[in-house]
Write a structure and sequence with these properties.
The protein has 516 residues and is α/β, with parallel strands linked by helices. The chain has 16 helices and 20 strands. Strands 4-15-14-13-10-6-7 form a seven-stranded mixed beta sheet, with helices on both faces. Strands 1-2-3-18 form a four-stranded mixed beta sheet. The two termini are 31 Å apart.
């Protein structure tokens, strides 16, 4: 039995075949360092940024100094079921920011987690708890209606024609039994989760059901409640899906001596989960117009909105929340990645007080969430982002505009190679055209196998010391997600490498793409 290749051996084989099997030994700012054959460190410009986790760069000096201070002070990591004032500080700071950016005074209750996928699942679990309790409250009110109707019948009230049909010709107790059975059957139907096509919300048992990519979702569809996907930027499709999932519970009314049936909307919609900028779906921002219609439709249906800001939040798009820039308000917000300052594993789910159910924290908990180390680093990260009147948000917008202008120049010069350039702030994507019909056998094979973007990443790494990856569910789109501190020379390096890649694709030089 071999003793090598035990840690994710399949992934390692894939990385080796694409020229991406390198070890990085040091990191700072927007630079990762790997060792050359002679042992020297070789700098690589990192535009992947931990899939959006390094808005302040790798090992930011202040974050690093705080981490060393906390470790030296031996702050407790394991002090569960005790007071956590540092977590309260993060929650209050986030509430202040949300109030400022959305105009909604909240408050939002914070539930901490270790990763974005966990925080997404916490939001969905809370939404389902809220839905279930509302359904139970409705059925309890219907029971009270039934008791009132029963007393009215004893006093001489009669059943309406519709009530008699439901009772199947029987008496009031037959009606009550039929009504209870019908309501129970409807209440026991599984909840309806909604998400947008192209969305990505994690790969855990629950969150993977919300991830649109069938390659990662379908093998596990039987493990949790399925999700209904609706196309982004199509309000009519969302409204139609919600209408199709409408369910009514039956109650009883008494008027003028007649007992009749009444319909009550039965809570069945658990939540709509979305990203204001779809990251793994190809870096696709939602529009303000769509956000406005989506908000209206969900409010009318009492469908809570979970805004997944795991990748787009924390200032990456030029404002703390990408959703606030398009006027979208969430019942839930999910933050992670950069919340940990590029160093700690930290995530949080925020739920608006109008939805919050006390006691949820006892139903959902985590051994490592909310520890002193991660939350104190999160608090310092928020301080750095908010410093100088939010200067880093403006910096993200300015750096993003500069990079976007370079990418648009590449697109204009290589329209036969580049299909699109899009994004917001420092969350950008360059989409390559499909090469399935290339004159190069290598390019044809790579494109048809869905790994052209990864092969391009291998080329950029070895030929231009540039670290770029495609997005997970749209693998011809190269992600550009550096920190706010990316410099003009680094932007020029990125442009030079991407232009060389486009020139290689234009000349159909598949052999050079794969050369190492």
């Amino acid at each position: 039995m071999t003793t090598t290749g035990l840690a994710e051996p399949f992934l390692r084989t894939q990385l080796e075949s694409l020229g991406l099997a390198v070890e990085y030994v040091r990191a700072e700012g927007d630079t990762l360092y790997r060792r050359g054959d002679d042992g020297r460190e070789l700098p690589v410009l990192d535009l992947v940024g931990g899939f959006g986790a390094t808005i302040l760069g790798h090992n930011h000096p202040e974050i690093l100094a705080l981490a060393q201070e906390l470790l030296s002070a031996r702050v407790p990591v394991h002090a569960q079921f005790s007071l956590h004032p540092y977590a309260e500080t993060v929650a209050r700071r986030l509430n202040e920011i949300l109030h400022r950016d959305t105009g909604d005074p909240g408050p939002y209750t914070a539930v901490f987690a270790n990763s974005g996928a966990e925080a997404v699942e916490a939001a969905v679990k809370h939404a389902e708890l809220d839905r279930g309790l509302k359904a139970a409250e409705l059925l309890a009110r219907i029971d009270e209606e039934t008791d009132r109707a029963r007393r009215a019948v004893r006093d001489g009230a009669v059943l309406s024609a519709a009530a008699r049909r439901l009772a199947d010709g029987g008496d009031f107790e037959s009606l009550a039994a039929a009504l209870t059975a019908a309501n129970r059957a409807r209440a026991e139907e599984p909840p309806v989760l909604l998400a947008l096509t192209g969305g990505f919300h994690g790969k855990l048992v629950g969150s993977v059901q919300l991830t649109h990519n069938p390659v990662v979702r379908e093998p596990f569809r039987a493990l949790a409640a399925p999700c209904r996907f609706v196309p982004a930027e199509d309000p009519a499709a969302l409204a139609a899906a919600i209408a199709e999932e409408h369910r009514a519970a039956l109650g009883l009314t008494v008027s003028d001596g007649t007992v009749d049936l009444a319909e009550h909307r039965l809570p069945r919609l658990c939540a709509l989960v979305l990203e204001p900028v779809q990251g793994e779906g190809g870096v696709r921002p939602l529009t303000a117009g769509y956000a406005r219609e989506l908000q209206r439709i969900c409010a009318e249906a009492d469908c809570p909105i979970v805004v997944d800001e795991v990748q787009s939040g924390m200032g990456r798009t030029g404002s703390f929340l990408a959703s606030s820039a398009i006027g979208l308000r969430g019942d839930y917000y999910v933050l992670a990645k950069s919340l940990g300052g590029g160093l700690a594993k930290a995530a949080v789910m925020l739920v608006h007080h109008r939805r919050h159910r006390p006691g949820f924290e006892l139903l959902h908990s985590s051994t490592f969430a909310k520890d002193a180390f991660s939350t104190l680093i999160a608090a310092r990260t928020l301080d750095l982002l908010e410093a100088d009147g939010g200067a880093r948000y403006r910096q993200a917008a300015e750096r993003g505009e500069r990079i976007l202008a370079r990418l648009e120049g590449i697109r204009d010069d290589f329209k036969d190679v580049v299909a699109d350039v899009r994004g917001r702030g420092l969350m950008l994507g360059l989409e390559l055209r499909d090469q399935s019909d290339s004159t190069s056998p290598a390019l044809r094979e790579l494109s048809r196998a869905g790994v052209l973007g990864y092969a391009a990443a291998g080329y950029l790494l070895h030929a231009h010391a540039l670290r770029v990856f495609p997005t997970a569910s749209a693998t011809t789109t190269l992600r550009i997600e550096p920190s706010v501190h990316i410099t003009d020379p680094q932007i020029a390096q990125a442009e030079s490498g991407l232009r060389a890649l486009c020139d290689l694709l234009r000349t159909q030089d598949g052999d050079r793409l794969l050369a190492r």
